[in-house]
Amino acid sequence: MIPHPAIPSGRLRALAHGLLYALFASWILATASTQDPLRRRPGLRKFDPTGLYLPDWRFFAPRPATADTHLLVRDQMADGTLTAWREVAPSQTRRLSHILFYPSRRTEKAIADASHAVHAYATANVLPKKEDIQLSIGYLSLLNFVTNQIPHTDGAVKTQWALATSGGYDESEEPDVTFLSNLHRLG
Question: How far is it, in rounded angstroms, from Cα 72 to Cα 120?
Answer without folding.
Answer: 19
